[in-house]
């Protein structure tokens, strides 16, 4: 019997290594996937640029505040807090939320999402001012989006106007490029075009260079936020990858595998040199390197103390914060 168990463990490890690939099955990505899904849909609905996974310094606490999405559009910027809640939800007297029957736990209590979004918006506004981008009153607002299909409301009339429940979220329609929905109002509608464009340009540059989580896009449309640490693998491959570090590279893309037998399959890695030139510069320089598909990268996910290994063959792309 022990022989059968031992052989079974070996077969399991081999199958896991060659077919399931590294830590993919152990990573819970649903909440992060929801954030990127919301950001992508907002860009399609309203245009503009969505910045995902910002880590804004809070001068009062000396820590960094995580902001899911900031959507920058003509005349307005909106802080989007994505709450992937499920179950029947009520709002308590102190503003906290209670979700019951979410499929994982019987009852889950959440701090007041509206107060949290308001605080993060204030912190972002202070950060922008420190970086020389003071925003006019009303330019920056906030919303809470709940995209989970199993989210249900109890006494929905009690939900604040800043909250978009799942039903409201799925029924949002694309807007003409020059128009805004009821919650994308345009703080400078009717103002000077030059002033609008100047603020938007400075805001986009500042947010694009703000601290944010490193980002992994995995096969199967899965996303992981956290911190990239290093590459592991054959010495020749790690030497080839030595120039891919955050001081030099902002983004990499993993191309299709070239097969030369299972043990010698290759991956083409395209990486984009970080551009430290002046504001408004948009040119990028891409370089290429070829490594074995067995090469790995070490990544520490957000809110986790455990370092994960991912084969490069399971990675679609990676973005690195400055």
TrEMBL record:
Every NERD domain range: 30-147
Q: Which domain of life is it from?
A: Eukaryota
Task: Spell out where the chain crosses the membrane.
Answer: none
A Pfam family annotated for this UniProt entry: NERD
Q: What is this protein called?
A: NERD domain-containing protein
Its signal peptide is none
